[in-house]
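[09:14] KT: can someone run the structure on this one? pasting the chain below
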Amino acid sequence: MANVQYYDVILKPVVTEKSMADMALKKYTFLVNPEANKSMIKEAVEKMFEGTKVAQVNTMNNNGKKKRRGRAEGYTAKTKKAIVQLTEDSKDIEIFEGL
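[09:31] RB: done, structure tokens below
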């Protein structure tokens, strides 16, 4: 990836029951750029959200699902999710506060 800025790495937060339950353990789930690696994700979270300190990043790649429309077949876009674990002395991420 040539010249990717930190705000291009994190696309949007994932809001599910499981990800909301993990927020009590300071784990936050994001949909990220499929080309991003763990160090890029860590740097992007620390720069985008002031006062956060990342302890660990886990990533998972999801392939696109096969879809049909008439005789035409294709695949949906592949995605990548990242679960970011913050340290104990780190501030919480504010975008999840009102949820």
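[09:33] KT: thanks! The longest helix spans residues 38-48.
[09:34] RB: yep, looked fine to me
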